[in-house]
Amino acid sequence: SEMTKIVEISGEGGPLGIHVVPFISSLSGRMLGLLIRGIEENSRSRRDGLFHENEGIVKINRVDLTDKTFAQAQDIFRQAMKFQNVVLEVLPPYNRDQYEKSVIAPLFLDNEEGVPKTKIPPPVHPKPTLKTIKLSGTMGLEAGVQAALQQAKSPNLPRLCRKPSSPSLSPLLGFGNKRNAKKIKIDLKKGPEGLGFTVVTRDSSVHGPGPIFVKNILPKGAAVKDGRLQSGDRILEVNGLDITGRTQEELVAMLRSTKQGETVSLLVARQEDAFLPREL
């Protein structure tokens, strides 16, 4: 790949002296590999200039680490280090955004013809501060990430660190107008893979918490099986309760309180005619 570089090392040279954490996509919440958080002084990696901090290891001996768990990725790395030659595919920090977009793009397609699944407009330039919470049944918590999720006491709902300048999200900020919006009621039955979508909102202002939108439909979960919920839908009600003025953490707690096998009733607003389909 033009976005990554190849690093060849020997498994017989002793410990590498690097500290890794899960490399999680800020766009989709998917596990992409291992992120190098620290390099020990006087280590083999530092001495030979093998790695730099914030680089991502995405393939080990041609094994793609995408969607592997942190434990699986670590085990693949440990097993590879038993061999004399180890080939790593490493992603430099300056290519991270481009790489994440290339990985997430297939999630938006319905079929082989490449019909866009969601109607997301072209990128625009505003750079507000956004916060994202994943509503799936799978773990994706990067080491060192704390904050509001501890208040919700939820191991299933990690708070993902994201950069403020995300082209895929900035158009949603213009969708606060309820005029011409079609209201749709969607019932989702919570299965073993969770509800299967992520939400996004602006930070609270003097006017109170901002509107909450569906950010992404994940490849597994109740939302993709049902097929009606779309990225960009504004969530108005949960189980008949108006969420206007409620924080993102409160919404997450409401959804999380739904037990497996129970149904969540969502009322969403959709402005289908406001945007053209995004070309991917």
From TrEMBL:
One of its GO terms (biological process) is establishment or maintenance of epithelial cell apical/basal polarity. It holds the Pfam family PDZ. This is Partitioning defective 3 B. Residues 185-270 form the PDZ domain. The lineage of its organism: Eukaryota, Metazoa, Chordata, Craniata, Vertebrata. InterPro entries: PAR3, PDZ, PDZ_sf. One of its GO terms (cellular component) is cell cortex. SMART domains: PDZ. One of its GO terms (molecular function) is phosphatidylinositol binding. It comes from the Eukaryota.
